[in-house]
């Protein structure tokens, strides 16, 4: 996909997060789901915290920081197909898990707005990125700026599915 298409798809996905946020009352947002796992609040914090950190890495590669490293074939497949392999439960990298916290709906919205603001700036600059320069992802290895953008889209989609699972758990 092109950077323009990836950017547009990320904006569309962010709209889905925003619309979902409007549907959830504050007490449910903060409540841990009956089946265990993260609350809506923790998912929102994680996804936008991780997305902002991913944008930082993307910006680093755009500004010339990084190394010339190979991207693993399995990671190239994930980026090509636009999804994490199915049937596997993924754990957040330790660095991100340690940052996890509950936030209010207002804080989640602020994080989302901050992410979208930074995304627009990074997408304007990405045309200057050297595809050979890559920075490390905690699980996927080295990614260039375009791969970071694609990863952000994949990661956002992955957690939309998690939000659906949380919602279904309240219906049981």
Automatic annotation (TrEMBL):
Record-given protein name: DinB-like domain-containing protein
Domain of life: Bacteria
Species of provenance: Pedobacter steynii
UniProt cross-references to InterPro entries, sorted A to Z: DinB-like, DinB/YfiT-like
Domain DinB-like positions: 15-163
Pfam hit, one: DinB_2
